[in-house]
Each structure stands twice: as structure tokens, then as C-alpha cells.
Amino acid sequence: MEENPSTHLMHVGDDREPPPVQVGADEVLYASSYVCLDSIVTNNGDLTQEIEQRRQTAAGAATLASQSNSSQNKAVNIQRISSDSATLWS
Question: Alpha-carbon distance 1 to 28, whole Å?
């Protein structure tokens, strides 16, 4: 059987094993989760993966914002020092 990773099914519902689905001679595989519009959808409604993904995204954004603010503050401090030293030496 040749696997096509873009074609999967998701069974949502009770714990019974879903029946096999065949397209021609190929059996379609079942997935327990997938990503839709940047959100993780699971077959049991568990939000753990989605929450963890959002936490990581927020942590990355906070780190970038912190680094950006730190660079801007350094630039402002350098400008203050250089303008202060100009008045001292003139």
C-alpha cells in the first residue's frame, strides 16, 4: 500500500474502533489530531496540545519584545551619553 500523508480521517465519538475505509486498494489512515487554521484539533477534544502551542508562541513573542525594548533602551542611553559628553567638552 502506498501511503498518502495528506489523506487521513479523524474519528470523533465513542471509544469504539472505527471501521476501516478503503479507496480503491488503499486503506485510508486515521489521525488523532490535525492542524486547522493554526489550531490543533484532536479526536477527543483535549486542549493540552493547543494550550502548549499557544504558550510557546506567547513566550517567543515576549522574548522578542523584550529584546527589542532592550535594544531601543540602549540606543536611547547612548544618545543621552553622547549629547551629555558634547556639552561637557564644548
Answer: 10
In this structure, are residues 13 and 34 in contact, taking their beta carbons and an 8 Å threshold? Answer: no
Does the predicted model carry a pTM greater than 0.85?
A: no
Per-residue model confidence as pLDDT tens digits over 48-79: 988 998 898 888 887 877 776 665 556 556 56
* Alpha carbons 37 and 35: distance in angstroms, whole number: 7
What's the CA gap between 51 and 42, in Å, rounded?
Answer: 12
Q: Percentage helix, strand, coil, to 5, in the chain?
A: 45, 20, 35
Q: Which three cell numbers mark 77?
A: 542611553
